[in-house]
Amino acid sequence: MPTQSVLYSFPDTATLSDSLAEYILKAQRESVDKRGRFSIAISGGSLPKTLTALIGKTGVKWDKWHIFYADERVVPLDHPDSNHHLAKNTLYSQVPIPHENIHTIDPDLLDNLEELADAYEKELVREFAQKDSARFPVFDLILLGLGPDGHTASLFPGHELLSEEDRWVAYIEDSPKPPPRRITLTLPVINHAARIAFVATGAGKAPMLNAILDNPEQGLPAARVKPAAPGQLVWFVDDPASAEVKFPKSEFKL
C-alpha cells in the first residue's frame, strides 16, 4: 500500500528551511547509524538554496553524504542551467563534502543522451547494487520540487516516461520547460526511496498543490509519487502555497 502523505505548512520560508534541515538531519542520523552512509538525491530550482539551512548545524556528517541528482539538465557542469552548478555555488562550496561523494553526469557524454543516461544509471548501480538487494536503488532521501504544471524531477504531464517501469535513469529530449534535453530518475526509483520530501513555496504553487493533494486522481506526475510502506512522503510548504489545500495539515515535530 502507498504511504499516506504528511503536509507541513510554515509561515515563511526561513521556518520551512530550518524545519526541513532538522528533518534531513534526523534522516542522516538514522541512515548513518544503520549503514554508515547517507544517500540523497536532489532536484534543482530553489532546493539547493533551501539546503543552506544545514550550514553550521551541529551533527551534519558531510563526509557520509552521497549526493545524486533526481534530474539534471544536459549542459556542461559549469553552465548556469546545470543543477550541479547551482548546488555547487550555493552549498558544496561552503561545506566539506568529499568531491567523490557528489555524483554528477559525465560531461564527456553530453552529445549522446542514451549513453549519458546509461552512464548515470551505472553510477547508481555501482553505489547501490552491492549494498541493497532491491530491484531498484533505495535512497535514504529524495528531495523534490513541484512545477506549475505538476511536473517533478523531469517527469512531465502526459509524457511517455511516466510509464517507464524498468530503467533507473531515463533521458528526455523534448522537455516542455527549457532546456529540452535532460536526464531524470524514473518513478519506480523515486517511489522506492525510504523518504521523499517535496518542497513548494509561494502563492503561485497554491493551485497545483491543491490539484496534487486534493485531486490526485488527475494523475499529474507529482501525484504519482507514492512510496510503498514503510517509505515516508512529506510535504514542506509555506502558508501561501497551502492556502487552497483542503488536505489536513500536520504539526511539525520529530
TrEMBL record:
It comes from the Eukaryota. Pfam families: Glucosamine_iso (PF01182). CDD domains: 6PGL. One of its GO terms (molecular function) is 6-phosphogluconolactonase activity. NCBIfam families: pgl. One of its GO terms (biological process) is pentose-phosphate shunt. Keywords: Hydrolase. PANTHER family: 6-PHOSPHOGLUCONOLACTONASE (PTHR11054). Belongs to the glucosamine/galactosamine-6-phosphate isomerase family. 6-phosphogluconolactonase subfamily. Its EC number is 3.1.1.31. Pathway: Carbohydrate degradation; pentose phosphate pathway; D-ribulose 5-phosphate from D-glucose 6-phosphate (oxidative stage): step 2/3. It catalyses: 6-phospho-D-glucono-1,5-lactone + H2O = 6-phospho-D-gluconate + H(+). Hydrolysis of 6-phosphogluconolactone to 6-phosphogluconate. This is 6-phosphogluconolactonase. InterPro entries: 6-phosphogluconolactonase_DevB, 6PGL, Glc/Gal-6P_isomerase, NagB/RpiA_transferase-like. Residues 12-235 form the Glucosamine/galactosamine-6-phosphate isomerase domain.
